[in-house]
Amino acid sequence: MFQLSNKSEQRREGIDPRLIEIDDLAITLTLVDYGHPADAGVRLAERQYQLFLGKKSKCDGYKLLSNHQPAEDGYGKALDFYAFVNGKASWQLDHLTMVACAYFQAAAILGYRIKWGGLWKSSKPKFKNGIPYGWDCPHIELIED
């Protein structure tokens, strides 16, 4: 069984408690270890805009808000992750997909709904073995009902 590092836990600060609950369970269910990179959790508008300018986000933080930015309740509703394989961060689709499966399983057990960026449609999709996949594979977000 895996556990999050202190640094990964700190990077969740300001994230909706339900998403943290999902994250805490997912790390115990996953077949592939994972962690949270810098900018994984809550982002203020200025930082979101920098990521937008660097083409790392489609949201500019001002006109188009990111779910990483605090919502009206003060919490961010999105969390980024990377797989951790053989002592290194991995962004490989196969590894990220396995982590996403743990997130979906945890969310289902807890009665929450989430979205995974690996399922998002794109006008210019990437392909793996002839199958298109979403443009933001290391991203999950809470679905509000």
Would you mind describing this structure in some detail?
The strands form three sheets. Strands 1-3-4 form a three-stranded antiparallel beta sheet, covered by helices on one side. It has a three-stranded antiparallel beta sheet with strand order 2-8-5, covered by helices on one side. By secondary structure, it is an alpha+beta fold. The N and C termini lie far apart (about 30 Å). It has helices at about 5-10, 15-30, 45-55, 95-110; strands spanning about 35, 80, 80-85, 90, 115, 125-130, 130-135, 140. Helix 2 crosses helix 4 (about 95-110).
SSE order, one letter for each helix or strand: HHEHEEEHEEEE
Overall SS class:
alpha+beta
Largest sheet: 3 strands, antiparallel
How are strands sequenced across the largest beta sheet? 1-3-4
What's the β-strand tally? 8
Mean pLDDT: 92
Query: Cα distance, first to last residue?
Result: 31 Å
The gross shape turns out to be globular
Q: Low-confidence spans: pLDDT under 50, at least 5 residues? A: none
Helical content class: 25-40%
What fraction of residues sit in β-strands?
15-25%
Number of helices: 4
